Amino acid sequence: MKHIVLTHGDVDGLTSGTIGVLALPGADVYLTRPSQIHQDLYRVAKDEPDVVSISDIAVNVARFDDIMRALSRFPDKTTIHWTDHHPLSARLKRRLSQCVELFHEIGPCAAELMYRKFEDALPEHALRIALYGAIADYCDNTPFTRRHFDDFDKRTLYLESGLLVQALQEIDYRRESKDIIWSMALGLEPSAMPNIVSLAVQATRIEHQMFQYVQQYAKKMGPIGYVLDVPMGGYRGKTAKFAAYVTDSEIGISARTSGDEVDMSIRRRGSRVDLNRLLNKVIPQLDNAQGGGHPAACGAAVSRSDFPRFLQLMGEELV
Ligand SMILES: [Mn+2]
User: Fold this and answer.
1) Which tens digit of pLDDT belongs to each residue from 196-242?
2) How far is the CA of 59 from the centre of ligand 1 (A)?
């Protein structure tokens, strides 16, 4: 049996992918993202696999037709599982369900969904892996997670998941991340992976320094706190959060300029505002802008000259 696992490179991606590997023994693993899933599907269709699992990959509306075309390249014998928790319209959900086994819920993380989908085929340690994914993706208040936090010591689960979250800030996206999948599949806890522990500690030290940087340089425009070009790669979600906090704002943005573009991570603070919906209102008002994500965490890119206008529009839509 030829098995393939395609998953995202963040902690929910790695944990849901690990559960995929445990459910589909011997699987080849590929880390992918919403913008390139269609290309990866084209590539793996050539291997004529028996089972494919895709987890934690949002279905990109702009790429939907490409994705459907890629899916049509698989032979009839291939079963394709698509397990995800990113927003997806009812119409696309229906169309996608016609060619894949779609398991889609908003609320739980992808790792929880993978665990629930494949539970009967999984070893005992897969449960903790699902909980690590839930903690990492802030999806730790579902009926499933609340029930199972009570099966262990919740504080230890948060430490283990936190080690992964922190270490990933400092890890090369593809190569070393895949090692984490193999280690977790073998039953190794993050605290038993020496490089993960030391990278996590290093990343935590850097994070505290980043906080001080944001405290010094964050600016505020209306209800939005933002920081530009923090002096290190990564840490974008975290510095967006810090920018909101230190400016006492409802929304925080960590922005990075590259060439003529400003690329942003956007987070909310003490607010129920749906950032994804907010962006869907603002983005069409700007040329060459793109963005989206979850209610609580989004990414966006606008041209450099539009950045002030973007902030202004976001602020206006918010009130
Ligand atoms: Mn996720």
Assistant:
1) 999 999 999 999 999 999 999 999 999 999 999 999 888 999 999 99
2) 12
The alpha carbon of 319 and the centre of ligand 1 are apart by a number of angstroms equal to 29
Give residue 287 CA to ligand 1 midpoint distance, Å. 29
Cβ–Cβ contacts within 10 Å for residue 164, how many? 28
CA distance 197 to 191: 6
What is the 110 CA–ligand 1 centroid distance (Å)?
Answer: 5
3-state secondary structure of 7: strand
**Three-class secondary structure of residue 162 per DSSP:** helix
Q: Indicate the Cα dihedral angle 277, 65, 105, 265, nearest 10°.
A: -40
List of domains in the chain: 3-198 (3.90.1640), 218-318 (3.10.310.40)
SS3 of residue 54 by DSSP: strand
Q: What is the tens place of the pLDDT at every residue in 103-138?
A: 999 999 999 999 999 999 999 999 999 999 999 999
Q: How far apart are CA 167 and CA 201, in angstroms?
A: 8
Beta-carbon contacts of 155 under 8 Å, excluding residues fewer than 6 positions away, are none
* Single pTM value for the model: 0.90
For β-strands 101-104 and 79-84, DSSP reports them as: parallel
How far apart CA 196 and CA 167 sit, in angstroms, is 6
